Amino acid sequence: MKTKTVKRRASGSHLRPAKLWQLRLFVTGQTPKSLTAFSNLKKICESQLKGIYRITVIDLLKHPQLAKGDQILAVPTVVRKLPEPVRTIIGNLSNTDCVLVGLDLRPAD
Amino acid sequence: MKTNGPKPASPGSLLPKCPTGIQGLDEITSGGLPRGRPTLVCGGAGCGKTLLAAEFLVRGAVQFGEPGVFMAFEETEAELKANVASLGFDLAGLVRRKKIVLDYVHIEPGEVQESGEYDLEGLFVRLNHAIDSIGARRVVLDTLEALFAGLRNEAILRAELRRLFRWLKAKGVTALITAERGRDQLTRHGLEEYVSDCVILLDHRVCEQIATRNLRVVKYRGAMHGTNEFPFLIGDQGISVLPITSLGLNHKVSSERIATGIPRLDAMLGGRGFFRGSSILLTGTPGTGKTIIAANFAQAAGRRGERTIFFSFEESPNQIIRNMHSIGMRLEPLVKRDLLRFHAARPSLYGLEMHLATMFKEIAAFQPHVVIVDPITSLMNAGTDSEGKGMVTRLIDYLKGGQVTSLFTSLTQGGHSLQQSEMAISSLMDSWLLLKDFEGNGERNRVLYVLKARGMAHSNQIREFLISNRGIDLVDAYIGPSGVLTGASRVAQAAREKAEALASQQEAARRKRELERKRATLERQIGGLRSEHEASDEELRRIDEQVGTQTRLLTTERTELGRLRQADVSVAPSARGKPKPKKGKG
Fold first, then answer.
1. Per DSSP, which regions of B441-492 are E strands?
2. Which of chain B's residues have a Cβ under 8 Å away from the Cβ of A73?
3. pLDDT classification of A9: cutoffs 50, 70, 90
4. Helix (H) or strand (E) holding B511
5. At what angle do helices B121-134 and B154-171 cross, to 10 degrees?
6. Distance (Å, rounded) from C-alpha A73 to C-alpha A87?
7. pLDDT for the residue B7
8. What CATH code is carried by the domain that includes residue A92?
């Protein structure tokens, strides 16, 4: 399991209170899409949730049984486990606006 | 189990088949679905797609030792288990024994945010994991189209679906994919584009407020298949397709005869009644006594200790029992001894398929010797003619296979040609009795005749059919110069004949007496003549004697005269006086 935990103090987030964000990124091996998704996600988190987020990367090729629990169909998929409610975003996260809406960091227009 | 299944593929076909175990479907597809390839099952809402898919998996796991994966996009695992449990499938048990994996894929439209490119590798991983965890040979995806609601990027979706079907083929599993029926195409999202090996169309049609399910194999690449639309049932044993055209005609036949309960009717049928295991049609206009004959048949079976099941589609059991009291027939003892069982249902209660399924179930449970359907016509009205015929065919074949004698009553409306209106089913029947009303002289009378009776000598005569409080009886109808006479006319004719016979008898007696009188008179006359004759004889004799005497006297006198002339004259007066008184006396 490729797990990378980034934990920093919150700074500059005006939308959310300082509370731990738990994100899961589901990928299938190190495909270009997976790598793009991870770097995009990290970039967004750094700018919005600095210090209060944790990203867990799960490779479904190694842990296929984990796909069922989080209802994974598409990859890459980001699941926001905390704070609740659970939010799901699919794709390589190239569209930052969509990601921000999906993570509830910006209200949908 | 990598064999072609227990049923070999049809001759000349090299396509390996995967038997579904679903009654009738394997016959239509001559062996099952194409093995190792995806099959598309499409149809509207509530037509049984999920059920067909579930049965395919359950039967695969139970009957053919092929584990399966059920990937559900619409129903949760718990819902699915509960739904198929009503059909007697223990899905939960199979899941516990690792014969089936249920995977519920939840997609909530609008819940998922999309950002950038993605693929459905997650689905592949899940499916692959499920297949490998139990070594599955069969896969069901129900209903893939839910993906179209959950994912907005159709271009990606279509590309991934194409990849999915290729992947399934490569995986070597026999897959069954369900899809909603589209308006202009087979499926709403054109899935048939990806699945080209076998397409089955299910249909739930409502015709005159009664629903019937139909199944049709639209396409089966590389194999022969039945192309017709076949009605199918969903009963408590699962799905049962009714492939009418594939029914065989190879049941055993019996030459045993069974009595009808009406001696004169037996006599009309060569003296011994119907063949066991034959099908009998009893056609008649309303009120001609069809149910009564049917009840008689049931009673006769009961007397032989045989079981009868009576499917009534017009009267309740109690009503039939009560009505039979009016002709002095008691059916309750038979019911009590469980030799007669009623099953009453309104024809419009449910569709033809359900009726048939229910009847099969009842017959299988009761194991009757005789089955009565009263009347088959109202049941047939529950569907179209061809459906009805199909149903009756199926029922008759089923009953004949079990050597069960079946009696169907059929109601015909006055005015129609009987032969025509019964075209649909009469050809399936071995014997056909016709009950008819004769109207005339202000009354209606029932007559009965045998229209056909395959394989036995039968009477060609019309019998009058009498219903009294002592039961039913058949009497010879009077056939005279003015046609067939029945009822009061027959009785009147009989009386007239009797009177005529009596009159001619009396006339003969009178003439006889007269002749005797005449003869007596003649005899008396003969007696008179004879005595006259005798009297004449007497006189003749006397005359002869007199003549003789006179001659003698004359001779004597002459001699005397001669003598006297020679002697004394005084002797002469005394000699003359003597013969005279003698003459006066005679």
1. 443-453, 463-468, 471-476, 478-480, 483-485
2. 105, 107, 120, 122-123, 126, 147, 150-151
3. very low
4. helix B487-566
5. 20
6. 14
7. 43
8. 3.40.30.10
B522 vs B189: CA distance, rounded Å: 121
Q: Would residue A109 count as lying in a domain?
A: no
Q: Does residue A108 lie in a domain region?
A: no
Q: What are phi and psi of B39, to 5 degrees?
A: -120, 140
Query: What digits encode the pLDDT tens for the residues B513-550?
Result: 999 999 999 999 999 999 999 999 999 999 999 998 88
User: Do the Cβ atoms of A29 and B121 come closer than 8 Å?
Assistant: no
Q: Answer whether B144's CB lies under 8 Å from B179's CB.
A: yes
CATH-assigned architecture of domain B257-476 = 3-Layer(aba) Sandwich (3.40)
- pLDDT tens, B333-355? 999 999 999 998 888 777 777 78
As a whole number of angstroms, the distance between CA B234 and CA B47 comes to 10
List chain B domain ranges: 17-244, 257-476, 491-577
Q: What are phi and psi of B262, to 5 degrees?
A: -125, 105
How close does chain B come to A90, measured CA to CA in Å? 5
Give pLDDT, residue B174: 94
Q: What are phi and psi of A56, to 5 degrees?
A: -110, 120
Contact flag A75-B122 (C-beta cutoff 8 Å)? yes
Q: Which residues of B touch A101 (CB under 8 A)?
A: 113
CB B435 within 8 A of CB B284: yes
A66 contacts chain B (CB < 8 A):
no
What is the Cα–Cα distance from B230 to B224, expressed in whole angstroms? 16
**Token pair listed for B109:** 């439209």
Alpha-carbon span B281 to B373, nearest angstrom:
10
Residue B575 makes CB contacts below 8 A (sequence gap 6+) with B557, B560, B564
The answer to whether B372 contacts chain A (CB < 8 Å) is no
Nearest C-alpha neighbor of B146 from the set B170, B172, B115, B112: B112
CA atoms within 13 A on the CB side of B115: 25
Strands (E), B189-245: 198-207, 210-220, 229-235, 238-241
Task: Check CB contact under 8 Å for B126 and A95.
Answer: no
The closest alpha carbon to B214, from B583, B350, B206, A76, belongs to B206
Our count of domains for chain A comes to 1
What tens digit of pLDDT does each residue of B45-80 get? Answer: 888 888 899 999 999 999 999 999 999 998 888 888
Domain made up of B17-244: CATH architecture? 3-Layer(aba) Sandwich (3.40)
Q: Which residues of B are known to be catalytic?
A: 74, 314
Contact B405, B370 (CB under 8 A): yes
CA B368 distance to own-chain centroid: 15
For residues B134 and B99, is the Cβ–Cβ distance under 8 A?
yes
Instruction: Indicate the residue of B107, B122, B147 with minimum beta-carbon distance to A26.
Output: B122
Which residues, 6+ apart, have CB-to-CB distance to B398 below 8 Å? B360, B363
What would you report as the CA-atom Rg of chain B, rounded to the nearest whole angstrom?
50
Whether A33 sits inside 8 A of B112 (CB atoms) is: no
pLDDT value for B38? 92
SS (H, E, C) chain A: CCEECCCCCCCCCCCCCCCCEEEEEEECCCCHHHHHHHHHHHHHHHHHCCCCEEEEEEECCCCCCHHHHCCCCCECEEEEEECCCCEEEECCCCCHHHHHHHCCCCCCC
* Secondary structure of residue B72 in the 3-state scheme: strand
Q: Which of B171-175, B194-198, B402-406 has the lowest mean pLDDT?
A: B194-198
Residues in contact with B505: Cβ distance below 8 Å, sequence separation at least 6, in sequence order: none
Query: Which residues form the domain of A84?
Result: 3-12+19-102
Contacts of A102 in chain B (CB under 8 A): 113, 115
Is the per-residue pLDDT at B586 higher than 70? no
Contact B61, B214 (CB under 8 A): no
